[in-house]
C-alpha cells in the first residue's frame, strides 16, 4: 500500500530550503522563543514578550502574591492579622500573668479532654460493626479521658503548673534524644566536629532541664512568651505588607 502523505516521504524543509535544517530554527515571530546564544546555541528564555522574569532571579513568594486575586489577598491578610493578634496576646499573657495563663490553659485542656472522652464513649456505643474488643477499649479510653479532664478542671491551678512542668520535661528529653541522634549521625557529615559539639551541647542542655525542671519551667515560659510576641509582630507586619510589594 502506497503512502500518499507528502509529509511522510521527505523531511520538512528548514531555513533556505535545506531538508536537514531545523524547521523550528526561525522563531522570530514566536513570543515564547528564547534569545539565540553564540554559535546558534540556545540562549536565555525571558518568557512571553520579555515576560516578568527578564533573566533576573525570581522570589517565588512574591510571584505567588502577584498571581493571587484581590479577595484571596484580603483573606490571607486577615488570617495573618488574626494569628498575629492571638500570638501577641498569648505571649504577653505568658510574660505578665503566667499563673493565670497556665490555669486558663489547663481549663481549656480539661474541657477538651471531657468533650473528647464523652464523644469517644458515645461513638463506641452507637457505632455499628465495631468489634467487641475495640468497643470496650474505646469506652475505657473515653472514660479515662473524661475523668482526667474533670480532675484538671477541679484543680486548674495545680494542673497548669503540672502541665508546664510536663512540657519542660518533654523539651529536655527531646533535646537529649536530638543530641544522641546528632552524635550517632555525626560521622557521616564532612564537618563532624561541629556536629559533635552541637550534640554535646544538646545533651547537656537536656540533662540540665531534667535535673532542675522547676527553674527550667520558669525560663521556658519566659522564652515561649517572647517567641510568641515576636511571631505575632512578624505576622502583623506580614498582614499589612502581603500582596502590596508586588505592585511596585
From TrEMBL:
GO cellular component terms, semicolon-separated: plasma membrane
Pfam families reported in the protein's UniProt record: DUF308
Keyword Membrane part of the UniProt annotation: yes
Residue spans of biased composition, Polar residues class: 1-11, 27-39
Disordered: annotated segments: 1-52
InterPro entries xref list: Acid_resist_chaperone_HdeD, DUF308_memb
Residue ranges of the TM segments: 79-100, 106-130, 137-157, 163-183, 195-212, 218-240
Domain of life: Bacteria
Keywords on record: Membrane, Transmembrane, Transmembrane helix
PANTHER family noted in UniProt: PROTEIN HDED
Name used for this protein in its record: Repeated domains containing protein
Species assigned in the record: Bifidobacterium parmae
